[in-house]
Amino acid sequence: MERASKTVSSAGDDIGDDNQETGRAASSIGSIGSIASVASQDSIYETMRRTRMLEPRSSNRRITKNAQFVNVLKECMLNHRWVEAGQVMKAICLEPMQMEDIIWKCGRHIMYNHPKSTQGIVSAFSLKLQRLLNQQGRLEKSVEHAFYLLSKGDLQEAYMTLREAPDLRKGLNVTKRHETEDRWETLAFLYSGLIKYAMWLESKAECSNESEYTDIQFGSQDSLAIERHADDATRSFEFLTDTAGIWDVFITKHCEILECHEKLGDASEVLHKYKDNNPKNPNAHKYLYGYLKRHNAHPNELVTVLKDLLHLVPSDELALDMCELIQNSADNASLALPFLFDMLDYACWQDDIRPWEKLADLLITVVKNNDSDGLKITKECWDSRSKWWPSYHFRSCHVITDTEQDRNLLDCKAAIATLLPAANTSTGNPFRKCAKRALKHTGAYRRLKKAIKLTKDN
To answer: CA–CA separation, 455 vs 152, rounded Å?
Structure first.
């Protein structure tokens, strides 16, 4: 790491030993008395030299002085005094022992914000310091520098930064990257694919704009660029189908490219494998369901995927899709009841009219048709909720808030409270009476009226 002193010091020289505004520097490091007493016209770098903080010392005393440097550096950075921070960093680089991470992380942050810094200086600093680090460190720094370049909108340079990493030169042409055990190697490889995906989007947008005036011919330079970016991105993502882990952001981009280029079989295989490899990841089920729905899959296949999802997340909004699929395709629509009850166990749906409407209409149909299977399912669902649902959903005080929010919501809740077994006694009955009084002279009284009529008939 001794060479780091020359490396970073030279980078520091590029952004200048600015002696201006250094009067404020002394106050920022007032905790170190020997520095605070120096004339305010001196730079921090010269101040440290004068107070003998930069003289060669034993390893223990060097570490102590480095700790003082870090305190000064922290003070400058917290106050966004980047010129002074650059001077402190230059001093730290003269004794870089055990300071590699600070030099890298703080040095980059200073260069990002220094008034005289340029993208070229930052890139030179990153490149030189990477050469002094071990292999894993170099890959990590390549990824971090690529993010910096992306923040500047330089996709091509960010891609080249990752592509030129030593371990990835061959990797970009190899599909089976799951054999690697290095996390940063995998991430660098994947993010290079994500950058190619961004290039693919840009090329598509440019072609779309040009096609308004001219026809884009197959095999033209523009179409070949789109194909090239798509192939590069796909090659970077395809190993994920055999790799356990949460790769949501990459899987979705991979499938988007495949679908756009009409490789539907490959897209379906990717999503099925991703779900099988990550059965406890709700998003894996959602992505597969969304794909199947877009391509008009059989309802039974959609129901199977949603069952697995709702087993993990009963409160997911796709429970409403599940109910519609069951009601439209199954002979027994009452099979949707458990999903609605599970959904309404969660407070996030307490004031949303959609599940309440479905449950009210379904219960009215079950009771009206005297559906034995539906009544049995309703009783099973209610038995585990009879002790807490009335106080959770059917309290008299809820009538006022529900009336103010949505009278149709109150109508649905009152109808359900009337039809549920034993819900219309004790706690449930006052709720229904209050709801009836609140809704009697309004138009939102349809479901409750039906429910009351059905209970009287039965």
So the answer is: 68
Supply angle C-alpha 210, 211, 217, rounded to 5. 105
CA Rg value for the chain? 33
Using the structure block, give the residue that is written with the tokens 């990835």.
Answer: 168
Token pair, residue 281, equals 């990841």
- Asked whether the beta carbons of 182 and 139 are under 8 A apart, the reply is yes
How large is the angle between the packed helices 372-383 and 337-344, nearest 10 degrees?
A: 20
Burial 349-380 (b: 16+ CB within 10 A, else e): bbeebbbbbbbbbbbbebbeeebeebbebbee
Between the alpha carbon of residue 193 and those of residues 146, 151, 162, the distances in Å are 12, 17, 10
Range picked from 23-32, 98-107, 323-332 for highest mean pLDDT: 323-332
Where would I find the H helices in 212-281? 221-237, 248-260, 264-277
**What is the DSSP secondary-structure string of 138-192?**
HHHHHHHHHHHHHHTT-HHHHHHHHHTSGGGTTGGG-S-GGG---HHHHHHHHHH
Residues whose CB falls within 8 Å of the CB of residue 33, separated by 6 or more in sequence, listed in order: none
357-388 pLDDT, tens digit each = 999 999 999 999 999 999 999 999 999 999 99
* pTM of this structure: 0.78
pLDDT at residue 31 above 50? no
Q: Does residue 3 surpass a pLDDT of 50?
A: no
Query: DSSP code of 19?
Result: -
